[in-house]
C-alpha cells in the first residue's frame, strides 16, 4: 500500500489496528471504523457503542494497545447488572479448524473476560470495528 518502508514486506513486523483498517479499505474487505480510547479505564465508557456494534450485526473488533501489547479480537459484549461487564475475547493468533467450541475455550483461545481486568487501565487502545456497511453508513453511526 506504500505506507511502510521497502523492508517491511516479507518481514515479521506487526501492524496495528490503524494499519489493519487501512488494509481492509485498500483491499476491499469489510469496512473498519476506528475508535481511539486514551486509557483502558475508558473502555467502560465505550461498552454501549460496542454493544450497539454487535447488536447491529457488526463483525469482530480488532484491539491494539501500547502498554498492553497483547492483541485481542472482541466477538461480543455482555452487560451485567450494575457496572459489571464482560467481553468475549478471541486470541487472534488462533489458527486451524477446531473440532468444537469447547476445544477453543479449553485451549484458552476464546473466553469471556471481565472488562475491568481484560485491559490495562493505563494503556491506550485503538479499536477497529468491522462492518459490511458502506463508508456513508459508518459515518452516520458516528
UniProtKB/TrEMBL annotation:
Keyword field contains Protease: yes
Superkingdom field: Eukaryota
GO molecular function, one term: deUFMylase activity
Residues in UFSP1/2/DUB catalytic domain copies: 5-128
Biological-process GO terms, alphabetical: proteolysis
Keywords: Hydrolase, Protease
Keyword Protease attached: yes
Family: Belongs to the peptidase C78 family.
Name of the protein in its database record: Ufm1-specific protease 1
Species annotation: Odocoileus virginianus (White-tailed deer)
